[in-house]
Design a protein that fits this description.
Number of helices: 4
Number of strands: 7
Number of domains: 1
Distance between the termini: 50 Å
CATH architecture: Roll
Shape: globular
Structural class: alpha+beta
Order of helices and strands: HHHEEHEEEEE
Oligomer: single chain
Largest sheet: 7 strands, mixed
Length: about 160
């Protein structure tokens, strides 16, 4: 069993014991290094949300990895360029995006953020619409900065 290339549990446990992989579970929430990294990812995700609300294409592009992909709440997939275009000058006009109770798992230089968002967008008929939905983002750390590599939102839970 230990020789199988698919024996992830044994290999991961051995790597953690040798100090090659970080250890993360709910009982390790007090680890200051892990907590700092998780807070950095949350701040980057909040900066991304603010760039959406401000329709700031330049700031948003700095927060998205060059190979970024996004899957929308209706199942459409966008490249980095299309995502920036659609969300800063295209059909979606953001007012705000709030991340509620974000949870981050960091492994090496990769992080996964799980949260529920409250999105406020301009409505076609004027005013605004508010939606709640789960969102997952994958962040990578390169050159001392976190960039979003991929994300998915949805399905919509309700109009808030």
């Amino acid at each position: 069993m230990g020789d199988s290339q698919y024996d992830f549990q044994d290999r991961s446990a051995a790597a953690r014991d040798e100090g090659r992989l970080p250890r993360w579970d709910r009982s390790c929430d007090h680890d200051p290094v892990d907590l700092d990294l998780r807070q950095e990812v949350i701040k980057a995700a909040e900066a991304r949300a603010a760039a959406l609300a401000d329709a700031d294409a330049e700031r948003l592009s700095r927060l998205l990895h060059e190979n970024f992909r996004w899957t929308s709440h209706v199942g459409e997939t966008y490249s980095r360029e299309e995502y920036i275009r659609r969300n800063t000058g295209g059909p979606t006009a953001w007012r705000s995006q709030h991340l509620t109770d974000p949870d981050v798992v960091v492994v090496g230089r990769t992080a996964v953020l799980f949260t529920e968002v409250i999105d406020v967008i301009d409505a076609a008929a004027g005013g605004s619409e508010t939606f709640r939905m789960p969102m997952t983002q994958v962040w990578v750390r390169e050159g001392g900065a976190w960039t979003c590599l991929a994300g998915h939102a949805g399905p919509r839970r309700s109009q808030a």
